Amino acid sequence: MQSAPPLADRLALVRSAVADAVREAGRAESDVTTIVVTKFHPASLVRELAALGVTDVGENRQQEASEKAAKLADLALSWHFIGQLQSKKARAVLAFASAIHSLDRSSLVTALGNALEPGTGVDAFIQLNLTDDQARGGVRPADLESFAESVLATDGIRLRGLMAVAPLDSDPRAEFARVRELGERLRALAPDATDLSMGMSGDFRAAVLEGATHLRIGTAITGNRPVAG
């Protein structure tokens, strides 16, 4: 059986595919940041990625991310927290994260505001729920403006834009077009909130074509995840 390509080859393939999508969209490569999602992978893999030029890393579990960030403190990495964040863990995440992609409820906004030290700040994205399932994480599109106002009123949270995951069994490009339109609505309130965090291993081309500024790509680069402990 043919073995999987090594990490450097997978990274190169994704970088090439992202560059192709950027050119197809008529955009500049500097407009798009690829965040490599490393959840469940060891710190040693993140160190390998850093040696290959990766600077943006995504994690979705606070304890795991905190431990990795501490082990890799000698590297110039930007850590992005992309998972659902419990309010009680806000301070722990702020200790390492340069950006939080999952603002989804007012209690979290309040917790982050209370945990931020005076004069400090964090970049943040509002997570959208694009499904009809209200139990899923994320802000419903109908509630976007009111929720954004609460974020904008909180000192230290720099609202960068929107984050979304295309629902299963949907047309990713149509969903990402919807996010782009919601981003235009958001900018009426927050002109600087121009970023769109959307697109993963299976749909990042569609995301780039619809204006994604941050891609969250895991298995296409890192390979299959080890079994979580």
Number of distinct helices: 9
Q: What is the CATH first-level class name?
A: Alpha Beta
CATH topology: the name is TIM Barrel
Radius of gyration: 17 Å
- Helix-residue proportion: 25-40%
- Report the CATH superfamily: Alanine racemase
Largest sheet: 8 strands, parallel
User: How many domains make up the coordinates?
Assistant: 1
Distance between the termini: 28 Å
* Structure class: alpha/beta
Mean pLDDT: 95
Low confidence ranges? none
Shape: globular
**Strand content range:** 15-25%
- Per CATH, the architecture is Alpha-Beta Barrel
* Order of strands across the main sheet: 7-6-5-4-3-2-1-8
Return the string of H and E elements: HEHEHEHEHEHEHEHEH
| Total strand segments | 8
What does this molecule look like?
The protein has 229 residues and is α/β, with parallel strands linked by helices. It has a single domain (7-222), classed as TIM Barrel (Alpha-Beta Barrel). 39% of the residues lie in helices and 17% in strands. It has nine helices and eight strands. An eight-stranded parallel beta sheet has the order 7-6-5-4-3-2-1-8. The longest helix has 18 residues, at 7-24.
